Amino acid sequence: MRKFKKQATLLLILTSLFVFANCFELGESKKTDDPNTLALVALAGLNPIAGNYNYYNGTSDYAGGTYTAPGNEIVGTYNISLSLIAQTMFDATYGNSYLYGEIQEIDTTKKVIYVRFRSDSSFSQGDYGWYRWTVKDGKTYVCPDLSDVSTQTTLASAKDDDLDYYSDPSNINAGCGLNSGFDPAPWSRLELN
Fold first, then answer.
1. Per-domain residue ranges for the chain?
2. What keywords would UniProt list here (predicted)?
C-alpha cells in the first residue's frame, strides 16, 4: 500500500508540473499538420477539428457561384464532437437541411472522419460517408462526401473512396465534390462561433 501511495503521489506531482508548465505561452501558437501530433491527438481519443462553427463557402474572398453563396456569407453550422458531426445547411427557399453523422473512425493521417448518418438526418439516413479536412493559411476547411453516399451501406465502402478523386485540398474554392456531379464546389471554411 505504501508503494502505491508513493507512485500515486509521484504521478500527481508530474501531472501537476505538466499542467502548470503548459499554462504559459512559450512562443507563437499555431495549428499543426504534423502527423505525429495528429496521431497523438487521435490516440488520446480526441477529434482534432472538434468545436462549434459557422461555415462559409471557400476562402473569405470567394465570389460565389450559380448555386453557392460568396465566402463572406454564413451558409450553415457544424457542431463537431468526439462522437458526432452535426451539420446544418441554411436554405431560405426550401428550408434547412440537417445531417447527423455518428463518428465511426478518425484517420488523422488522411485527415478524414468517417461517419454513419442517423435516421433523423434530412437525407442519407443509415448510409456511410466521410468528411475530409485541411488547414490552409491558418483556417480549417472541410469537404463533405459528395460521392454516391446512397450506395455506401458499410464503413468499408466509405473507406474505399479515393479521397483525392473526390476532393483536392489545394483548391479550396473549387476542389470539393470532384467527379460527383456537384463539382466544382468549394470547401467549407469553419469559423468558431
1. 35-192
2. Signal
